[in-house]
Design goal:
Layout (H helix, E strand, L loop, with lengths): L4 E6 L4 E5 L12 E5 L2 E2 L3 E6 L4 E9 L9 E7 L22 E4 L2 E11 L2 E6 L3 H11 L25 E3 L11 H9 L3 E7 L9 H4 L6 E5 L1 H12 L4 E4 L1 H10 L9 E5 L14 E5 L6 H6 L5 H13 L10 E5 L4
Parallel strand pairs: 1-17, 3-12, 3-14, 4-11, 14-16
Antiparallel strand pairs: 1-2, 5-6, 5-8, 6-7, 7-10, 8-9, 9-10, 12-13, 13-15, 16-17
Length: 335
């Protein structure tokens, strides 16, 4: 397998290729890199819809806070099958109603709401937080898609920064970072800070429901990160977001003057071409397919002509897609 690559997209239209290990060379002294330190939980739970006796897969997809009690989740429910089948080909679950019971290995859950779509529900797990965590750890698997045919272990979906297990899929842009790169940032006097954001799922298997992605996602911005952003902006440095989740958290937490509020909240809405970015200057992300919510977010950083040219360059050089693929840096000024 070739070493990971990095396409740098200058918002003025320039395109340059680098080995991803040279990420630091594309940044400037005084910049601040902000990453998501969320660890990924094993959010795929197979089991039985008790009323019908039919097999299901529950993919945990949301909750109300990165620090809340974990009994309640939003979840997407699939019928029989697993990640070896393309998500869009997965059968629908049996008809699910409020108060239905789901038997998920050692866990018992009750449907408390059907959220406007047959696949999207709110669940409440029985038991204490410790019992729920133990059941998820024992029975859950990482959410996985058919482009990776070998089963993923939990450590496969943890970035080097993984901390609190609050993400439902990996904040995969963070796979570009390791401790050597973080050390290189420090040696170049480039700042580094983190937020915690509950990265959600990438696909629900239903085109209509996918139009609502990303779902609302909780996040936490430490005071130290908010202060680092303020210092960087005051000194003329740029804010470099590692991934779409960081962009969502920082832009949602921003005041009208661009200052970031520390604390916890829930990122709502979508970022796209019409969004006026108030905090983030550049984004490092994966290689995303046109039409996805991740790709739509990139339109806030570069115009469609620039992104179309980049798409052609990525295809011509066979950059790898998805969470374990290559990387793209969209940056506002020429190198």
């Amino acid at each position: 397998m070739t070493a990971p690559r990095l396409l740098v997209i200058d918002a003025r239209g320039g395109l340059r290729h680098f080995p991803r290990e040279r990420l630091v060379d594309t940044l400037r002294t005084g910049d601040l890199v902000v990453a998501n330190d969320a660890a990924t939980m094993p959010a795929s739970l197979h089991g039985i819809h008790v009323a019908s006796g039919e097999p299901i897969e529950v993919r945990l997809a949301g909750w109300s806070s990165v620090t809340t009690d974990i009994a309640g989740f939003t979840a997407v429910v699939f019928g029989a099958g697993d990640f070896h089948m393309k998500t869009e080909d997965r059968p629908s679950p049996p008809a699910i109603a409020v108060h239905d019971a789901l038997a998920l290995g050692p866990l018992s859950a009750t449907v408390t709401q059907v959220l406007g779509h047959a696949r999207l529900v709110a669940l409440h797990f029985s038991g204490s937080s410790d019992e729920i965590w133990a059941g998820i750890a024992q029975h859950g698997r990482p959410v996985q898609y058919a482009h990776e045919q070998s089963p993923l272990a939990l450590w496969d979906v943890w970035t080097a920064l993984a901390g609190r297990p609050v993400a439902f899929e990996p904040p995969s842009a963070g796979f570009a970072l390791d401790w050597q790169i973080i050390g290189a940032l420090r040696s170049r006097h480039i700042g580094f800070a983190t937020i915690t954001h509950a990265a959600g799922i990438s696909s629900t298997g239903d085109a209509d429901l996918d139009q609502h992605l990303p779902f609302d996602e909780p996040y936490d911005v430490p005071m130290s990160t908010a202060s680092a952003i303020a210092r960087t902006r005051a000194s003329g440095g740029r804010i470099i977001a590692i991934g779409t989740t960081v962009v969502r958290a920082l832009e949602h937490s921003a005041r009208s003057d661009g200052m970031v509020r520390a604390g916890s909240d829930i990122a709502t809405g979508r970022i796209g071409r019409a969004t006026r970015l108030r905090v983030v200057d550049a984004i490092l992300t994966g290689v995303h397919e046109r039409g996805t919510s991740h790709y739509e977010l990139l339109r806030a950083f570069a115009d469609d002509d620039t992104l179309s040219a980049a798409d052609g360059e990525l295809a011509a050089h066979q950059y790898r897609l998805h969470e374990f693929g290559d990387s793209v840096l969209v940056i506002p000024a020429a190198l």
